Amino acid sequence: MVSKSTNKPVITNSSERFINRELSWLAFNERVLEEAANKRNPLLERINFLSISATNLDEFTMVRIAGLMDHIRLNSTLVSDDGLKPQEQLTRINERIRFITKQQQKIWNKLHHELSINGIKILEREALTAHEIKWLQDYFMENIFPVLTPIALDPAHPFPFLPNLGLAQLFLMSRGSRKQEQVVVIPLAHKLPRFIALPSASKKKSSNMRFIRLEDVIDLNLNVLFPRSQKSASTLMKIVRDSDLDIEDEADDLVRYFERAVKQRRRGRVIRIKIAMATPPELKQFIVSQMQVEKDDVVHAQGGMIGLSSLAEIYACDRPDLKFTPYSVRFPERIADYSGDYFAAIEAKDIVVHHPFESFDVVVQFLRQAARDKNVVSIKQTLYRTSQDSPIVQALIEAAEAGKSVTAVVELKARFDEEANIKWARDLERAGAQVVFGFVNLKTHSKVSLVTRRVEGKLRSYVHFGTGNYHPTTARVYTDLSFFTCDPLLCRDVAQLFNFLTGYAQPKSLAKIVIAPRGMRRELIKLIDAEIALAKSGKPAAIWAKMNSLVDVEIINALYKASQNNVKIQLIVRGICCLRPGVPGLSENIHVKSIVGRFLEHARIFCFSGGHALPSPQAKLYISSADWMPRNFDWRVEAMIPIENPTVHTQILSQIMVANIKDEKNSWNLLPDGSYKRVRATDKSFSAHEYFMNNPSLSGRGKALKKTKILSKNLYKLMKK
Asked: Mean pLDDT for the chain?
């Protein structure tokens, strides 16, 4: 088959057109792991990247592998977009995971050595002094012994329940003159620290830190736990359980249903067991039979440490010399120009705030002012994820207690945050807020606040749109955008969006915003097709887009069609990307890069040239809460917002997007075969993260547009080199 527009062969084989979703995610986690080996990063930051890669892999196993195993168990004939059956996918995934876990252990062994050189020692038992052993014996009796529950296994004591991600020690103990052996299990309580800090002999507290692992302290004190017994063999194990929740349409009370489901998740089916490499065969066989898993589901930690995610405790060490240099988070000048009056600042002109380089406190203070302003009549808010001590929720509670009408759309289906969201829902209800849980079969993923106040006898609304969650903690490391406006049409659209969420009233028409699951995919394909028409007519045609994941087949095929018609496409996709760039006759006009560095790229920005050379003030520009994935288009409530204010448009397109395209220091290029190649860089290479940390706030009032144009021109010159 030949394309009429290009006279080139059209690739129709699915495996040649698409990259496997799961393997693409694993490739992203490998890029995270590479940052743990990147010597440009400070030592403790490398430890943190290693911990994150381990946590990511656990979550992938809990959800994605669990799902594939369900398909295999049910003899599902479902085939992935790249043409693989569930068992074929699982085989390739397991092969890749074995490689990743081996790399994790190699990197850990190197980092372990570097920590020691830098005065942070994680000791084995043999390296302890007599004084330290005595101190640990006392520490064990006071802080560990009362919490442990050793369980000797026999017909009266079956294998104990181990919670998801739980660690346990298994001992083969012999006692008495006949040397009868018995298996004993000691679950390690989640609340106990994994690394025990030994008292320092140095007056300089941070100059020399010595730690020992919890399991080694227990092993050191076995004589207390098992007097008159001897250890024949031992191992440490970690289990990973199926943690996805199935949603029932007929659930009578969604809150109670999720409370039960979260509790059941802790007891989900065991998917993986990780054990020490030196585990004796008899103990491994015992684990397989007791946990009712296949031998292939038991993974050995090759010469390293089980539970690398707990290295977050080491990262918390007070060693600023081994971490990224702190930078000063800026407060938007526009707000300061109006003496902290958010409503006055928004009325003057639309505002964009670039997190984490500009403070997330802007969002918190906006809602606090709304809670305390006597003229505010109502606040409507979506909540997907937030922090445990959320100032956002506290502001909503304050507003409700002050008698304002407060509506909170709380998403119970935010994975791994279900319990926290149930708690916030109950706290809000007690304060008098109206709490709505959205749809049973749709996740409310859009990030929107709508404040309405009475001004000179009339109602005026103010909106905050976010590309990220209302989470002050993650806002320190996630790159996201906050957009504030009082545009009447946008405010009216948002009011209709909340009516849809609370009253299931689908809007007949929206003036500006585009929502999912009601037409976002269709609108994006329409925008892509418009670029194709421009290219055919000989006008400039280009698409720039930034997102976390690109999976949707219809969108990918539309991008392939655009490439075949000479539309120039630049994609910045941090994580999963199922599109194959640079394939002759299919995608030679598409370039895909991933940025992985100090901050987690999270903002979604979509730009369509409209017949003008990018970056152009006339281009169509949108920000969104949605990635280009089927789940976002079909199973989530999302919003895509046009950016029309000239200053904001220039800031997002000519600064943020240009800087991301220009970035070399944190970038990886996606190759046609699905692999990634790090961009060659030096210390002098351009870094988007460093650029935004070091440049002044651009949210000022009178001088903002001028400063924005100057910085954008300089950036564009860099990009052209």
From this structure: 89
